[in-house]
Amino acid sequence: MAFPTSVNDQITDSVTQSNVKVIGEAPAVALGSLYQSLAHAAGIAAENLVTQQQNANNLSLAIVTRCAEALLGNTSAQE
């Protein structure tokens, strides 16, 4: 301790060590949180890509169906 106090030295030492431990772990916790956030964002981006691909496939199927109906002379395609 830098200066004498009325508190037991063991208590002040344990509090000091706890504070040092928390400060020492802060960069690792921050990086862990950052990596977790990046992984979550990448997962959402992949999910959005899959949804977009499914929607494009549905659209192309609808277009092919309309074109086939028009070629075959179906009356529903001319509405």
Secondary-structure blueprint:
Elements: H1 9-72
Please characterize this protein's 3D structure.
The protein is mostly helical and about 80 residues long. It has a domain at about 30-79. It is built from 1 helix and no strands. It is rod-shaped, with a radius of gyration of 32 Å. It starts with 8 loop residues before the first helix and ends in a 7-residue tail after the last helix. The relative contact order is 0.05. The model has no long low-confidence stretch (mean pLDDT about 85).
Helix content: over 70%
Count up the helices: 1
Strand content: under 5%
What string, H for helix and E for strand, traces the elements in order?
A: H
Stretches with pLDDT under 50, minimum 5 residues? none
DSSP, total strands: 0
**Rounded mean pLDDT score:** 84
Structural shape = rod-shaped
Q: How many angstroms separate the termini?
A: 89 Å
Biggest beta-sheet profile: none
Structural class category: mainly alpha
Q: Cα-atom Rg, whole angstroms?
A: 32 Å
